[in-house]
Amino acid sequence: MVQEKKFREDLYYRINVVPILVPPLRNRKADILSLVAEFLGRFNRKYGYQKWIHPDVMDAFLEHDWPGNIRELENTIERLVVTYREDCIGIDALVEICLWSLKSSAEDITSLQACVESEERRLIANAYRTTGSTRKAATILKISQPSMVKKMKKYKITVNKP
Is the CB of residue 93 less than 8 Å from the CB of residue 57? Predict the structure, then answer.
């Protein structure tokens, strides 16, 4: 742009001290979970809600390409928190509110292990969020409390503290 006289040369040299290369969010999938947690906490505090995101929605977030990068993710979370009526933001919210088109079941064939883990994650998250206690959730699921804690860590199910 400097060569084409579309950007001032002196300004270019002022800001070109340390190049900062930030890859797009689609190349940093590991950052999505922590960003979702940050944005969800921020908007829950801002609007006075106690909403949480279903693990299936987190899976959909990880599969999405995020052409709008972090700003698109932030706006999506805020839209879901503000406009979705339920405390648990489910996969239907993405379709209903954000107008996402999700893969059809024929395109979404996965391994048995992946399906079992997805269902286990859903059950553990629901049991914990219903009871608010790892001990009570473990009792409902008929597993030990240490197993419950290990599985929550495995699936990155966080304890929401007000």
Answer: yes
Rounded Cα distance, 64 and 25, in Å? 10
- Give the pLDDT confidence of 18-44 residue by residue, as tens digits: 888 889 999 999 899 999 999 999 999
Query: According to CATH, what is the number of the domain 110-162?
Result: 1.10.10.60
Q: What is the CATH number of domain 24-106?
A: 1.10.8.60
Query: The pTM is what?
Result: 0.56
CA-CA distances (angstroms) from residue 124 to 62, 94, 119, 131?
20, 22, 9, 11
Sign of CA dihedral 104, 85, 97, 24: negative
Q: What is the pLDDT of residue 18?
A: 81
Q: CA nearest 77: which of 96, 100, 99, 94?
A: 94
Structural element, H or E, at residue 83: helix 69-83
Is pLDDT of 162 > 60? no
By DSSP bridging, strand 52-53 and strand 88-89 are: parallel
Write out the two tokens for 58: 């987190």
Work out the number of other CB atoms within 10 angstroms of the CB of residue 149.
Answer: 16
Q: Which amino acid is at 70?
A: I
Phi, psi dihedral angles at 53 (to 5 degrees) = -105, 130
